[in-house]
Amino acid sequence: QDHVCSLSKVPFRGAPCSDAAGRQVPYGIIMKQVNTSLSGVLWDEVQKSPFYEYKDSLGNFHQVWFDDPHSISLKAAYVKNRGLRGIGMWNGNSLDYSRETVAEQQTEAMWQALTP
């Protein structure tokens, strides 16, 4: 109800960020899943990022954080306005490069968001 998702602590696995209890989900799956989620798209004003919540078939609660063209464009504008030297997007290969029209539009919008 308060959109707080507690993660179980896992042992350090020897690489940066390897103590995270989550996993990466391809953008195409996120875009399909968010429409049937419990919450729909939620927005975190501090992180400037969207997220959503759902329950799996076993009734376990999940929270998924992601970037979309809006959040990426805000971050790209931040970089540009401060004269920083660049920006990157984590795992662009997780975008949906299928020939589906919606997937092509979503992928193009993500890449375009990197250039404010």
TrEMBL record:
Keywords: Glycosidase, Hydrolase. GO terms for cellular component: extracellular space. One of its GO terms (molecular function) is chitinase activity. Residues 1-116 form the GH18 domain. One of its GO terms (biological process) is chitin catabolic process. It comes from the Eukaryota. The keyword Hydrolase applies. This is DIAC acetylchitobiase. It comes from Scytalopus superciliaris. The lineage of its organism: Eukaryota, Metazoa, Chordata, Craniata, Vertebrata. The gene is Ctbs.
